[in-house]
Please model this.
Amino acid sequence: MLVYTMRRVLGALPVLVLASILTFVMIDVSGDPLADIRMQQPPPTEEVIQQAEERLYLDRSMPERYWLWMTGIGGNGDIGLLQGEFGPSTQGPQYEIGPAIVERLWTTLRLVGAAMIFALGLAIITGVISALRQYSKLDYTLTFIGFLALAMPTFWLAGIMQAGGVKFNQLVGDQVFATIGDGRFRAEGQPLGDQLLNAFAHMALPTIVLMLISFASWSRYQRTSMLEVMNSDYVRLARAKGLRNHVVIRRHALRTAMIPLTTVVAIGVSSVIDGAILTEYVFQWRGLGDFFITAVDNNDSYALMGWLLLSGVIVILANLVADLLYGVLDPRIRYE
Model:
């Protein structure tokens, strides 16, 4: 297992390098980071523009800037991913991209992680039930709910959830659901129970939004995969041996049926991250989604590169975890 894991990690390194190159090139050719400065009235002097170009390393060629961004060799100490520096920001020397990403990373990970866990659990349950009760009223109802959630735009669903939370709070006369903020600011010495309630109040609605979007497609994959497995020869053989139905489903059918879902979930991590951008914007969470939108507004190229590269690392890690889970779900796979 250890050798296989190391081999997969080493195999992911070229993919990560290629992703970094594509990220750098796409952001570099997408626009001028100094466009806002050049459009100021009155126009800035050439000396001001030259100083800004030197600070952002725009006075160097593209290959040299990529080398600086990766290694920091030849820079001013504020750039170089291998040195833990993401590069200078257009928002000013006082704004450090690395600490800003680290500060907001946990906010987004707890939202994305909770949404994916609930979505995966709900998708497995509804997918299995739909497959076992194929073409029943319950199957049609779950299918309708899945397609309805799949058709909802993220920003619209988030807005509906936010408005519903406000209305619910008004009806009960208490703030059960927090519709603004991520709840990171708490009073010192607050009891653990109050902290848990505060976390639930802030996470409930955004988590439901992301959960519904992911659950909608994952449940359909689980249903299809479960139907294929239930009609396979080894499941029929297990039933012919006299095993109970729940034992056949749990030990034989469900494990194999989850293999395609594992692949879909690993690939779908990027979609969940994209959905988190809009969800955090609607609920005003200071996570990586807010970081991304701020970077776009300020044409902050190095911040955008850092965000995209971090997203790529998360997707690569998710696929690595999926590869390792294949051996747990499918006994025919051996890590040798």
User: Anything to note?
Assistant: The first helix runs from residue 2 to 29. The mean pLDDT is 88. The longest strand covers residues 79-80. The domain at 97-329 is CATH 1.10.3720.10 (MetI-like fold).
